[in-house]
From TrEMBL:
InterPro entries registered for this protein in UniProt: A-crystallin/Hsp20_dom, HSP20-like_chaperone, Small_HSP
Domain SHSP: 38-150
Organism of this sequence: Janthinobacterium tructae
Similarity comment: Belongs to the small heat shock protein (HSP20) family.
Protein name: Hsp20/alpha crystallin family protein
Length: 150
């Protein structure tokens, strides 16, 4: 949402009678929590996928999540990553009085298809510094078959 400066003279008669003078601020404050959730959900888990001849390397950014709350499942060439977010931030003033407390709970989920099936037995996962690293070896196979045109 663009920020616009609107100059109002509270001493002016029309400025005091305008029923919509604070509508933009009201709407922004009303919808801000939903917009933050939507933005957070869509941008929370970013995934990079690299491919070599033998495997896929997946890097998923999942900050603020405990590794025990991350689940990875592989079904053929479909990889699914889910994580449960439990983020609590508390700000206290010098005397111990809570000034602000914010909590964010929810599920993050990403699923994607790879061009080749994954060898589940050889797959490995590591989580460090908010980044999930997956090593997904390709399943051995004969590959595609060329058809002779008659």
């Amino acid at each position: 949402m663009a920020n616009h400066l609107i100059h109002r003279d509270p001493q002016h008669l029309l400025g005091r009678l305008d029923p919509f003078s604070d509508m933009e601020e009201f709407m922004h404050d009303f919808f801000a929590p939903a917009l933050r959730l939507r933005e957070g959900a869509s941008s929370r888990m970013r995934v990079d996928i690299a491919e070599t001849e033998q495997a896929y390397q997946v890097q998923a950014d999942i900050p603020g999540v405990n590794k025990d709350d991350i689940h990875v499942s592989i079904d053929g060439n479909r990889v699914s990553i889910s994580a449960e977010l439990k983020d609590e931030r508390v700000t206290r003033d010098g005397g111990g009085k809570i000034v602000r407390s914010e909590r964010e709970y929810g599920q993050q989920y990403r699923s994607f298809m790879l061009p080749h099936e994954v060898d589940e037995a050889g797959a490995q996962a590591r989580y460090q510094n908010g980044v999930l690293l997956l090593d997904l070896p390709k399943k051995e196979g004969k590959g595609g078959r060329q058809l002779a045109i008659q």
